[in-house]
Amino acid sequence: MQTLSKLIQNNLKQYGMIIALLLIVLLFQILTAGILLKPLNITNLILQNSYILVLAIGMVLVIITGHIDLSVGSVAAFIGAISAILMVELNMHPFLSVVLCLLLGALIGAWQGFWVAYIKIPAFIVTLAGMLLFRGLTMIVLEGQSIAPFPTDFRQISAGFVPDFFGSGSIHIFSLVISVALSLIFVYKEVKDRKNQLKYHFNVLPKSLFIAKLVGVAVVMNGFTYILATYKGIPNILVILFVLIVGYSFMMKKMVVGRHIYAVGGNEKAAGLSGIKTKRVTFWVFVNMGILSALSGLIFAARLNAATPKAGNLFELDAIAAAFIGGASAYGGVGTVIGAIVGGLVMGVMNNGMSIIGLGVDWQQGIKGLVLLSAVAFDVFNKNKSSS
Amino acid sequence: MADILLEMKKITKEFPGVKALKDVNLQVKEGEIHALCGENGAGKSTLMKVLSGVYPYGSYTGDILFQGQECQFKDIKQSESLGIVIIHQELALIPELTIGENIFLGNEQSKKGVIDWSQTVIQTKDLLKKVGLEESPDILIKHIGVGKQQLVEIAKALAKEVKLLILDEPTAALNESDSENLLNLLLELKRQGITSIIISHKLNEISKVADSITILRDGQTIETLEPGKDEITEDRIIKGMVGRNLSNRYPQRDSKIGETIFDIINWNVYHPLQQDRKIIDNVSLHIKKGEVVGIAGLMGAGRTELAMSIFGQSYGQKITGKIKKDGKEVEIKNVSQAIKQGVAYVTEDRKTYGLILIDDIKANITLPNLQQISQRSIINEQEEIITAENYRTKLNIKSSSILQKTENLSGGNQQKVVLSKWMLAQPDILMLDEPTRGIDVGAKYEIYSIINELAQDGKGILVISSELPEILGICDRIYVMSEGKITGELNREEATQETIMEYMTNIRGEKHADLEQAYTK
Ligand SMILES: Nc1ncnc2c1ncn2[C@@H]1O[C@H](COP(=O)(O)OP(=O)(O)OP(=O)(O)O)[C@@H](O)[C@H]1O
Ligand SMILES: [Mg+2]
Description:
The complex is a heterodimer.
Chain A: H1 2-31, H2 39-64, H3 72-89, H4 94-118, H5 123-142, H6 152-159, H7 173-199, H8 207-230, H9 236-254, H10 256-266, H11 268-272, H12 278-304, H13 315-325, H14 337-356, H15 361-387
Chain B: E1 4-15, E2 18-29, E3 33-38, H1 44-51, E4 60-66, E5 69-71, H2 76-81, E6 84-87, H3 99-103, E7 110-111, E8 114-115, H4 117-131, H5 146-159, E9 164-168, H6 176-191, E10 195-199, H7 203-209, E11 212-217, E12 220-225, H8 234-242, E13 260-270, E14 278-288, E15 292-297, H9 303-310, E16 317-325, E17 328-330, H10 335-340, E18 343-346, H11 350-354, H12 361-366, E19 374-375, E20 378-379, H13 381-394, H14 411-424, E21 429-433, H15 441-456, E22 460-464, H16 468-474, E23 477-482, E24 485-491, H17 497-505, H18 513-520
Parallel strand pairs in B: 3-10, 3-11, 6-9, 9-10, 15-22, 15-23, 18-21, 21-22
Antiparallel strand pairs in B: 1-2, 1-4, 4-5, 7-8, 11-12, 13-14, 13-16, 16-17, 19-20, 23-24
Helix pairs in contact in B: 4-5, 17-18
The structure holds adenosine-5'-triphosphate and magnesium ion.
């Protein structure tokens, strides 16, 4: 009995948020009388939250280095506006426009990163200024108007689906093939990792739980794809998200840069004396945030099929909340990409679920605030417990 | 026989993965100075944290009897109300507040929530006089040295009407005269009837001031040495701590000294904030292959600043001078260039500059060496684990595994992690800044052996140390610094404590006369 409670305690932190997410999904599935997990709604859920999730990935990196970025919503709006001018007013090719927009995002990130990393102005202030600056610029370039509509090719980012190469029946077969393949790869990697860890006598999940975890992930993943497949299959945006999540997770966990980012956030002085170019790391984390803000802005514009002066309003708060719900520490040095994604999904599912059951925006805001606070409180509580 | 003031019985304290204390017993008599000795990670700090309520009742098992009464402290406030005050290994003063504000922090002299400043100042002055500190109460803490800060901590304890004062390695960061000062103060407090428990790895101090000594090893009480019953000598304490006689404090070494591999020529450094304040003044020095070179000096002589400015200009501005490696001039403008040139620096301040405390042992050791264990920027996790495990065993780092967070390691073991990280970098020149601060005798011996091994391999070693016996014990050649200048160079044969001290103080002879006195005592 004692071992079981210890086990739960040890793994609570790691899996706590995922379990919470599943519970929230279950709750709203019941409250919405099954609408939540309807194929159409799931597809919507992904489309609605994609731009926040993209921001959350960048934001968690910023937070890990011990900073914050309040400007992401404004930057997203600004890039959306620029993309509209390029594509709608100047008739530039969508692909070229997207590349230019991402470059512009990088430039904006570099601008803010320069002040934060090299001039040492607190990120809170630099990006607060950025939030005002880029919102202002958005309104200036749009002259207070919306610009629409975008070319169809561009809208595919948010509105398109992965084509089915196996003919089109009522079910999207290709999606299922991808999903099964991915789950097999996942199981293989996990088994390999566990073997390795056992070799070095690390604490691992006991076998039964481990198998339960693998089965759980496979069922959720394939079940989820199956639901999508009964509608239109996998949205393009999900592919982009998947690539970003896997890529950034890999970078943070297994690559030298990732280590450097964690080290700078953990103790900047010690990192510097270990040969890490701390200013450069901070600078590039902001450049990266700029690029992802731009991407987020593009996705949003494509989904809305318009660039508006109000776009991206309060995105920064959702992205920051996602990172913190996902276990990032406000002191820096702690956080994961997956955590931020799970945090973003918690917020997304709640938004969606509460809208379906017809809760007003007022209540939604309040409840989201409480969820943020309790998630972080849970984390802190857990930490105190394990260290004393 | 004096009365027993404190009795701790069968204290057991577990952390996830480690049993830090196993049935520990401790008896402290009224009015004595009781020393707690033991190797790094033996559980000394933990025992004191249990006593003072840092680890609340319920998180450990066993009984605490203070003045005959059973105590179950939920927090520090409760133990303080009984007069048990602990001064932690890391000082807990707030740099931006004044001496007076710090002393009465949490204990403010106030009427209905409004602070009575004149009362605060009067009482602070009184307390400062008691601890022999001549500073005005409204000086900011950050403007006084560590030695004085330590005295402020004690004044703070006195303000709380302390009966039992606990000091965890109070002299680790102090120079000898400040240490001397502090120990005298303890003796003075003892005359006034205040009992104290002191933890220290400086055994000469222990044998000087302690009335009785309890020795811990691996979380267990080994014995208590009492005057009259046992002989209290350093050797006897060491025997209790490590379980055997340590006949020689410094391992033997046959120096095989080769060519010069590292030259510093006309090195000048200015203060990072004050443009025209010269901190290092035209220093030239060299290190040969296989040589252990020491730098002696008083605190503030500029030794750390020298080493850090050499190490990729990590300190200061307007740096001029040449660095030659193997006779060729090299450019070392930042830390990664320094590492590339095979220069490493082990800091004296492991918590601020050495470790990422929230990370585990493994990540800390490999941090400067990620290139070594990665292919195309992807870290080879297996290799990382093997490497870290290797150093954990080699340096005998006491921990539950290489995944233990460094913030949960005992002070000495943290030091070993920092050392590992730079040994792994396999530098040609290793600069060690106070490498044995806060380290137990056994581990010191291990570290000296490692230094010897590295020298044997033809590396050049530079050791900065404030402990003269250590410098004399391990170095082939000694530079002495004072006020940013090199004031003397001595060979092993000609060096004695007296000659070194002369050079250490000779520039402003008069001002340091009192220090000199303290040293020769
Ligand atoms: N919060 C914690 N979590 C896990 N282990 C801990 C924690 N604090 C201490 N330990 C472990 O408990 C043991 C005793 O540590 P403690 O700090 O009491 O040693 P110490 O005798 O004071 O050593 P030193 O002389 O190096 O300061 C060590 O093995 C340490 O790693
Ligand atoms: Mg200790």
